[in-house]
Specification:
Keywords: Amino-acid transport, Cell membrane, Disulfide bond, Membrane, Metal-binding, Neurotransmitter transport, Sodium, Symport, Transmembrane, Transmembrane helix, Transport. It catalyses: glycine(out) + chloride(out) + 2 Na(+)(out) = glycine(in) + chloride(in) + 2 Na(+)(in). One of its GO terms (molecular function) is amino acid:sodium symporter activity. This protein is mainly alpha-helical. The chain has one domain. Helix 1 packs across helix 4. The longest helix has 45 residues. The chain is globular, with a radius of gyration of 26 Å.
Length: 522
């Protein structure tokens, strides 16, 4: 999980830095991607606001045959927002191996992104917890403003109907289910390590069952709500151009930095809407980046655990931020978008499915579902509902496994627009995906070699048992099967000190000061 979070943390801040760049570029009277009269535009550029272009999809009634080819070439328009993105912001090279120059404006915005992230995490969860109140709630205000503006535009209903109408022919495509799984993994943070990190700051008896229900419903509802915001604007743009919504809809970077910005140019006071949109993207990205960086820092501090690193956590945060900035510099080059998409498709997509599947199987069938359900009952005061027990034991592993199998069967090499990635680049992508997954069998073999036992079967049996000190960190929470059989003494090792100073300083409600949040790591 740490390896995955490292990959995501590197390239995710590059996406935030591009949003920063567009945010700063929106501070003007006319958006720079509104017209085709800029030095970087090509003769193929055809802006929806240019008075010389054909509007509303109108075509000449009759044309001589010798003009049909030039017209067909002209109608294959290249939008000014696409040329701004490809020829000015990225100065895109022709190959993933051709790095070209580092785009200094993007490099500066990347530095701003990492400085913001570091300052918000300088005091750990104490500072980031306060910032998240803003970064998690204000995007809803922006979404609502854009939603109200979008649904009042002509053609918005067409875009919304396109959004709500299922395409049943896609239901058997593995890529659709893979994308759906990736969306859930990204939005909920499954298999990233962030959930474990943040949960370690909770009170031992925190009602995580209630929290998980609220978060899951709110997350999916927000995604649906954001879809209305996006497709209402895209429907308006399609109506303006006289084309189908599918012609203007896009995915990935093309939606955030090409299609939607172009649609915003059609609105009155377009710089204002552009500022709001990219400010929302920045806040959403920072909220994710806070969790990623905190995951890495907490893992490092807790794993080392000595007094020096506990007191110098700020320097650890600074070191991780500087390393992330340096590793992100190649992604600001002219070939950076190729590498960003390569990391996104391999390092942080395929491996998440594998990690989560192994995690379900390991907890349910190696640690044991009965032990796990008893642990949850000890913390919550009641066992998990039968629905969740069935899902954890059978449904979730099966669904994840079949998604993994279908993804492998229907695998297609990555492409970007019309660019086909070379074989060596795809091999690097698989190596990045493998680098996180390989940690699981390697550590299993390491643990198997250092476990006592006369035979391999005995070693395997002993290696799959919890260690002697497994259980709640605080003695007062060691009840039931975790209760000590003899009177505790300092040598018993039961009085585990909190590894993280922030966790040790957050008071709990209704208990004495010795009940710390660290004991949720059972």
């Amino acid at each position: 999980m740490m390896v995955v979070s490292t990959y995501i943390g590197i390239y995710y801040n590059v996406i935030i830095c591009i949003a920063f760049y567009y945010f700063f570029s929106s501070m003007t009277h006319v958006l720079p991607w509104a017209y085709c009269n800029n030095p970087w535009n090509t003769p193929d550029c055809a802006g929806v606001l240019d008075t010389s272009n054909l509007t509303n999809g109108s075509r000449p009634a009759a044309l001589p045959s010798n003009l049909s080819h030039p017209l067909n070439h002209t109608l294959q328009r290249t939008s000014p927002s696409e040329e701004y993105w490809r020829l000015y912001v990225l100065k895109l090279s022709d190959d993933i191996g051709n790095f070209g120059e580092v785009r200094l404006p993007l490099l500066g915005c990347l530095g701003v992104s990492w400085v913001v992230v570091f300052l918000c995490l300088i005091r750990g969860v104490k500072s980031s917890g306060k910032v998240v109140y803003f970064t998690a709630t204000f995007p809803y205000v922006v979404l609502t403003i854009l939603f109200v503006r979008g649904v009042t535009l002509e053609g918005a209903f067409t875009g919304i109907m396109y959004y709500l109408t299922p395409q049943w022919d896609k239901i058997l495509e593995a890529k659709v289910w893979g994308d759906a799984a990736s969306q859930i993994f990204y939005s909920l943070g499954c298999a990233w390590g962030g959930l474990i990190t943040m949960a370690s700051y909770n009170k031992f008896h925190n009602n995580c069952y209630r929290d998980s229900i609220i978060i899951s419903i709110t997350n999916c509802a927000t995604s649906v709500y954001a879809g209305f915001v996006i497709f209402s604007i895209l429907g308006f743009m399609a109506n303006h151009l006289g084309v189908d919504v599918s012609r203007v809809a896009d995915h990935g970077p093309g939606l955030a930095f090409v299609a939607y910005p172009e649609a915003l140019t059609l609105l009155p006071i377009s710089p204002l809407w552009s500022l709001l949109f990219f400010f929302m993207l920045i806040l959403l990205g920072l909220g994710t980046q806070f969790c990623l960086l905190e995951t890495l820092v907490t893992a490092i501090v807790d794993e080392v655990g000595n007094e020096w690193i506990l007191q110098k956590k700020t320097y650890v945060t600074l070191g991780v931020a500087v390393a992330g900035f340096l590793l992100g510099i190649p992604l600001t080059s002219q070939a950076g978008i190729y590498w960003l998409l390569l990391m996104d498709n391999y390092a942080a997509s395929f491996s998440l499915v594998i990690i989560s599947c192994i995690m379900c199987v390991s907890i349910m069938y190696i640690y044991g579902h009965r032990n796990y359900f008893q642990d949850i009952q000890m913390m919550l005061g009641f066992p998990p509902p039968l629905f969740f027990q069935i899902c954890w034991r059978f449904v979730s592993p099966a669904i994840i496994f079949f998604i993994l199998i279908f993804t492998v069967i229907q695998y297609q090499p990555i492409t970007y627009n019309h660019y086909q990635y070379p074989g060596w680049a795809v091999a690097i992508g698989f190596l990045m995906a493998l680098s996180s997954v390989i940690c699981i069998p390697l550590y299993a073999l390491f643990q198997l070699c250092r476990t006592d036992g006369d035979t391999l079967l005995q070693r395997l049996k002993n290696a799959t048992k919890p260690s002697r000190d497994w259980g709640p960190a605080l003695l007062e929470h060691r009840t039931g099967r975790y209760a000590p059989t003899i009177a505790p003494s300092p040598e018993d090792g039961f009085e585990v000190q909190p590894l993280h100073p922030d966790k040790a300083q957050i008071p709990t409600v209704g208990s004495n000061s010795s009940s710390r949040l660290q004991d949720s790591r059972i």
